[in-house]
Amino acid sequence: MKDRESLSSLLANQQENLPARRMKDSYIEILLPLGSQPEMREKYINVYNSVRFGRLLEDLDSIGVLICYTHTKNEALQRSPLSIVTALVDKIDMRKKVVYPDRDIKFTGNVSWVGKTSMEVKMHMFQDHDGVFSPVLNATFVMVARDPENKRPAFVNPLIPEGPEEEELFRQGELNKTKRVEISTASLLKMAPTAEERKIIHDIFLNTLDTKTVSFRSRNLPPDSVWMEDAKLKGLEICHPQERNIFNRIFGGFLMRKAYELGWANACTYGGSRPYVVAVDDIMFRKPVEIGSLLYLSSQVCYTENNYMQVRVHTEVFIPETRQHYTTNVFHFTFYSEKCVPQVIPKTYGESMLYLDGKRHFGNAVNGNELHGL
Questions:
Q1: How confident is the model at residue 5 (pLDDT cuts 50, 70, 90)?
Q2: Are 239 and 51 spatial neighbours (Cβ–Cβ below 8 Å)?
Q3: How far apart (Å, rounded) are the C-alpha atoms in residues 346 and 201?
Q4: How far apart are CA 88 and CA 290, in angstroms?
Q5: What is the 3-state secondary structure of the chain?
Q6: CA distances from 121 to 44, 55, 144, 169 (A)
Q7: How buried is residue 306: exposed, middle or buried, by Cβ count under 10 Å (0-12/13-18/19+)?
Q8: Cα 153 vs. chain centroid, distance in angstroms?
Q9: Axis-axis angle for helices 349-369, 195-208 (nearest 10)
Q10: Checking DSSP bridges between strand 343-345 and strand 225-227, what pairing results, if any?
Q11: Given a cut of 70, is residue 54 above it in pLDDT?
Q12: Which of 26, 52, 160, 348 is the most exposed place for a label (fewest CB within 10 A)?
């Protein structure tokens, strides 16, 4: 990190000092030759003879950073003074249920919106089917630029959209930013549930009361249901140097893969069959994870509807010296099961808030994705 301190003098004092870029300036295509280079498959294949989604999350994270470095590249400099990190995975929508391990994959992407110090990146993944690349997923990431020591924000090149299509993409980026602020403001950690949501929770409460007693504490579990407290799975990771990024912290893609795999296992044990991921949204990178950290992962099935499960994975770091915990990430995954899953039932007020939060995220997945291919 010390060798990056000298790069601070190369940072722009204001965004207006940086040359504007076009969307095509940051556009890249990357081929993952799983079909033409069989030796690569071992890293990506899973026990179902399909591609591990967790590995794709790692690739998307790396590609998103690369796109932003391409957008901000100064040809006159050998090294970029910027530290670009993932701030948020806004949305990943699946278009196909299965990704095959013996066919080439193509990633494309570019910067689609720019603020003062942040960039929205749109990425698309395709897979070769008889010579034609078919859509597999669409992803939207938000990256932020920091100074060389990753201590404070840094300005990035402005973006000039060209033509109606690019103007619409840029406008959508502005809307996404506004929507994120609105969702944050309406968070159940800050605001009370809506009247409709309160009724949903009260109906669940009434439906689980023991009619044989006149007690608020005596509860009965309805048929084909599971108490939320019994729909959890936990894990622990020791964060070794092997998983570090260029800033000597744990690579965000690694965190996403581990969270996804725990969430998948949670959905698998809960639903009793192989789950398929259909959407990922609202992954906020709150704090970096240092090398040597003890990373606690806690997965919870927090909402179910027919064949679908909404799974929330919470990650936190434990510092043995101070015995303190702090949250690093919260992940939200929507899974599909080939058979109808039991209804998850909250018992406490805290669980009821998790249930409503999961219902909101599931609603976003359904509205934005229309559950393609399922």
A1: low
A2: no
A3: 9
A4: 19
A5: CHHHHHHHHHCCCCHHHCCCECHHHCCEEEEECCCCCHHHHHHHECCCCCECHHHHHHHHHHHHHHHHHHHCCCCCCCCCCCEEEEEEEEEEEECCCCCCCCCCEEEEEEEEEECCCEEEEEEEEEEEECCEEEEEEEEEEEEEEECCCCCCECCCCCECCCHHHHHHHHHHHHHHHHHHHHHHHCCCCCCCCCHHHHHHHHHHHHHHECCCCCCCCCECCCCCEEEHHHCEEEEEEECCHHHECCCCEECHHHHHHHHHHHHHHHHHHHHCCCEEEEEEEEEEECCCCECCCEEEEEEEEEEEECCEEEEEEEEEEEECCCCEEEEEEEEEEEEEECCCCCEEECCCHHHHHHHHHHHHHHHHHHHHHCCCCC
A6: 24, 19, 11, 11
A7: exposed
A8: 22
A9: 120
A10: parallel
A11: yes
A12: 348
How far is Cα 343 from Cα 352, in angstroms, rounded to an integer?
Answer: 13
**How far is residue 87's CA from residue 136's CA, in Å, rounded to a whole number?**
24
Residue pLDDT, tens place only, 236-292: 999 888 877 767 788 888 899 999 999 999 999 999 999 999 999 888 888 888 888
Contacts of 225 (CB under 8 A, 6+ apart): 342, 343, 344, 345
Distance CA 285, CA 252 (A): 8
Could you tell me which residues are beta bridge partners of residue 298? 234, 314
Structure tokens at 170: 């840029």
pLDDT at 16 > cutoff 60: yes
% of residues, the chain, pLDDT over 90: 61
Give the pLDDT confidence score for residue 372 in this predicted structure. 45
Rounded Cα distance between 154 and 149, Å, is 11
The half-sphere exposure of 77 on its side-chain side, counting CA atoms within 13 A, is 15
Residue type, 13: N
Structure tokens at 152: 């404070």
- Tallying the residues shown for the chain, one arrives at 374
In this structure, the number of other CB atoms found within 10 A of the CB of residue 250 comes to: 26
pLDDT digits (tens, 9 = 90+) for 191-236: 888 999 999 999 999 888 877 776 667 788 889 999 999 999 999 9
